């Protein structure tokens, strides 16, 4: 049988820097655990625009459709701010999500013990935190029509449309209920049914799907109140399901519960392919961090944990995923910190590659 295939798209800014550390982990699994991948690499985002005049070449899109999983670093940067909207780096990422139909974006926020003191919230609020945000990723206001900037009388109007069909809500709700069944059997759905019709439909459909999961305790919250509750007492949540835009905002917020945006991984999953694996793209929640790009300061952990999610969700290697997570936990417990995690007195930051090397050393020690 051939090896599972991975397409790596490092992207822009710190994307290639953090992905280089993931490559070390992939190589280690090939050499030491007999887990070999056929890896290919390509361009997405600003670097693809520089070469091809488009943030995602059709050939790259076709490759992404064929492989068992895609790993993506980050896209974007100030250099590309001047580009026309249709070719901005972010359009490349959105096209991947849409054409691969990756409707369920899993964004776990876990607070590692060694970082409990590091959050901007009090230690007892975040210690032991382990929540999962399921963000709908292929619809909503990100993709709804009509959209654009139009002339209206003597001024312009900017339009985006929030739009959800019942089936779009149904499938992401099912993903969230399935996850809740494997976790703490609690699901909170967030929308704004008090002001948006799409929110009313969202609540109705999620409630209906919930009848198929009687063991899961389902609750509903308005998304603004949800943001407040996430900072007040985040441990009240197990799984949260929400739409594309609210999920974008709430997952950045959740990142800071764990100490840094540089810690949060994600998995974007679609329907199962012929081989039973879901279509999948794995990427950190953070962006290309132009303010620290090229300085060896980026925290590679979000990207490394995204690869761990690939092991779990695409390759059925939950034990090996846990091995990576344990290695991350161990380096943090040793006090290793990239610059985004500083704050404790007298601690010198390690570089991106030193952090990657230390995680590989912990993997080695786990054998
Ligand atoms: P950002 O996530 O790139 O950065 C926000 C802040 O967090 C910055 O101060 C940055 O230095 C810090 N940070 C982020 N990741 C870090 C890491 N791994 N280690 C240490 N510090 C880290 O968000 P932004 O500044 O709003 O956006 C910059 C660019 O990235 C924009 O073009 C945006 O569209 C793009 N973006 C891309 C993605 C993606 O590719 N998935 C996600 C978010 C933003
Ligand atoms: C994210 C990012 C993206 C989004 C951008 C870069 C398109 O913020 O993955 O969270 O808004 O979905
Ligand atoms: Mn975001």
Beta-strand fraction estimate: 15-25%
Chemical compounds bound to the protein: nicotinamide-adenine-dinucleotide, 3-isopropylmalic acid, manganese (II) ion
Largest sheet: 10 strands, mixed
What does the average pLDDT come to? 96
Label the overall shape.
Answer: globular
Order of helices and strands: EHEHHEHEHEEEHEHEHEHEEHHH
The CATH architecture of the largest domain would be 3-Layer(aba) Sandwich
Helix content: 25-40%
Number of helices: 12
User: In what order do the strands lie side by side in the largest sheet?
Assistant: 2-1-3-12-11-4-5-10-8-9
The radius of gyration over CA amounts to 20 Å
**From the helix content, strand content and strand pairing, which structural class follows?**
alpha/beta
CATH superfamily of the largest domain, by name, is Isopropylmalate Dehydrogenase
Overall domain count: 2
Number of strands: 12
Catalytic activity: (2R,3S)-3-isopropylmalate + NAD(+) = 4-methyl-2-oxopentanoate + CO2 + NADH
GO biological process, one term: L-leucine biosynthetic process
Function: Catalyzes the oxidation of 3-carboxy-2-hydroxy-4-methylpentanoate (3-isopropylmalate) to 3-carboxy-4-methyl-2-oxopentanoate. The product decarboxylates to 4-methyl-2 oxopentanoate.
Enzyme class: oxidoreductase
């Amino acid at each position: 049988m051939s090896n599972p295939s991975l397409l790596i798209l490092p992207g822009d800014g710190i994307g290639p820097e953090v992905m280089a550390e993931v490559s070390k982990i992939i190589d280690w699994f090939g050499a030491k655990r007999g887990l070999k991948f056929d890896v290919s690499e390509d361009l997405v985002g600003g670097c693809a625009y520089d070469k091809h005049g488009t943030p995602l070449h059709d050939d790259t899109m076709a490759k992404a459709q064929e492989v068992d999983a895609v790993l993506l670093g980050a896209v974007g940067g100030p250099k590309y701010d001047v580009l026309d909207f249709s070719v901005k780096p972010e359009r490349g990422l959105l096209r991947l999500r849409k054409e691969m139909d990756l409707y369920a974006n899993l964004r776990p926020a876990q607070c590692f013990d060694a970082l409990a003191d590091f959050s901007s919230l009090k230690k007892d609020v975040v210690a032991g935190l382990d929540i999962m945000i399921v963000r709908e990723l292929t619809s909503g206001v990100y993709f709804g029509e009509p959209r654009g900037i139009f002339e209206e009388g003597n001024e312009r109007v900017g339009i985006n449309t929030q739009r959800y069909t019942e089936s779009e809500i149904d499938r992401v709700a099912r993903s969230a209920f399935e996850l809740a069944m494997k976790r703490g059997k609690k699901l909170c759905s967030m929308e704004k049914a008090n002001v948006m019709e799409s929110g009313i439909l969202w609540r109705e459909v999620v409630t209906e799907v919930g009848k198929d999961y009687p063991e899961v305790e389902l609750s509903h919250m308005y998304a603004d109140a949800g943001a407040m509750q996430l900072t007040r007492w985040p441990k009240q949540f197990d799984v949260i399901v929400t739409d594309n835009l609210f999920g974008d905002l709430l997952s950045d917020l959740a990142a800071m519960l764990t100490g840094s945006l540089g810690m949060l991984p994600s998995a974007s999953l679609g329907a199962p392919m012929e081989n039973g694996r879901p279509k999948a793209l794995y990427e950190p929640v953070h962006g290309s961090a132009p303010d620290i790009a090229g300085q060896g300061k980026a925290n590679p952990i979000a990207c490394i944990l995204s690869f761990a999610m690939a092991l779990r969700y695409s390759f059925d290697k939950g034990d090996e995923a846990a091995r990576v997570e344990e290695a991350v936990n161990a380096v943090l417990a040793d006090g290793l910190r990239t610059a985004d995690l500083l704050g404790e007195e007298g601690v010198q930051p390690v570089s991106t590659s030193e952090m990657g090397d230390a995680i590989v050393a912990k993997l080695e020690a786990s054998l």
